[in-house]
Amino acid sequence: MPDLATLSQTVCLSGLAGLLIAAAWQDLRTLHIGNGLSVAIAVLFVGWAVIGLIAGSYTLVAFGLSIACGAGLFAVGMAAFAAGILGGGDVKLLAAVGLFAGPAGILDLMLVTALAGGVFGIAVLAGAPIGPVSPPGEAALRRRLPYGPAIAVGGLWVASRLAVG
Q1: For the chain, which end, N or C, has fewer CB atoms within 10 Å of the first or last residue's CB respectively?
Q2: For 80-137, how does the pLDDT look when each residue is reduced to its tens digit (9 = 90+)?
Q3: pLDDT at 145 over 50
Q4: Is 10 helix (H, G, I), strand (E, B) or coil?
């Protein structure tokens, strides 16, 4: 039987999964990810980390490195935003998920997110109706790709890896 700390951290990871699914769904429908979802993920991370610190399964060094990973992803994401590659909601969501990924999972997060984004991009080019309907007269190749679902897939990968230890 799992101890209370493990159970509590599992609840946090389940909450992360639910918020990622909500963010993906919102982005698919509206091309917008609300700030509240990214803030809620960051708050869940703090709860998850504090539980780990109290239980002795997480360290302050790991906490600091996770904050650095989230900040680093935010900085890289802001450059992508400035270049018109990512939306602001995508940047915030990616940074929030990066907190959970930490240094041990950041490469997995980026790889799985990029692969999922590539699959979604190919699907859109093939004519799949992913995302909101384009305005009349807009070319199919100019269709905007919601990247929240790809970030959610990467985040779900990270959550699953954390859940299995």
Answers
A1: N
A2: 999 999 999 999 999 999 999 999 999 999 999 999 999 999 998 888 888 776 666 6
A3: yes
A4: helix
Rounded to whole angstroms, how far apart are CA atoms 83 and 77? 10
Give the separation between CA 153 and CA 24, rounded to whole angstroms.
Answer: 9
92: exposed, middle or buried (C-beta count within 10 Å: 0-12, 13-18, 19+)? buried
pTM above 0.85, yes or no: yes
DSSP state of 83: T
CA distance 115 to 2: 34
User: What pLDDT score does 38 carry?
Assistant: 98
Could you tell me if 63 and 48 are in contact, meaning their C-beta atoms sit under 8 angstroms apart? no
Write down the mean pLDDT value for the chain. Answer: 92
Domain limits for position 73? 4-164
| Two structure tokens written together for 71 | 């900040």
- What dihedral do alpha carbons 58, 165, 103, 79 form, nearest 10°? -120
